[in-house]
Amino acid sequence: MRYLLNHLDSAGQLTLIHLRLSLIPVLLGLLIAVPLGALVWRRPALRRLTTLSASIIFTIPSLALFVVLPLIIPTRILDEANVIVALTLYTTALLVRAVPEALDAVPGHVRDAATAVGYTRVGQLLKVELPLSIPVLVAGLRVVAVTNISMVAVGSVIGIGGLGTWFTEGYQSDKSDQIVAGIIAIFVLAIVIDVLILLAGRTITPWARVKAAR
Fold this sequence. Notes:
Blueprint: H1 2-6, H2 8-40, H3 44-59, H4 62-72, H5 80-104, H6 108-116, H7 121-132, H8 134-152, H9 165-172, H10 176-204, H11 206-213
């Protein structure tokens, strides 16, 4: 803890890098997974294929993917793009399964009411089903964000910056206090991001708060 307090400037810089590497993939994965998940939602064969593909992607070790990506895309092994692309794949793999499950949770009578008042299929999806599925999506998003924050630390093994740098530097210089400081910083960062996503989800779904209160 003392190491962390004595190196707050360095912690701030590393935290910004860590946030960039972990949250950009969350946004990119969300942009990919929501339309893809909505597309396969009512197509059982495509949904099973998507789920299987996502499961296969998520079983690939993150460190192996960081190393292999430069052979697939035109980047250097120490390029931050490798981490961003890899974590975008993991994010998409997790969320593309969560989106259909979130849409499944929308009550049937709500869909019937939307149809009765004249919503088209696309209008019903965009204006009724997706908004009502936000609480379930937020739960999946919280898992993804925390997972990404922990995975970025693995990138330090191949020289990518972030709070994980304190792990490798502490190990190489035999400074256990630096390693502990890295663990604490990542833990606190994960909690803060998790709480922020939770609060944002509650803010944009006031009807969920009213339902809970009742």
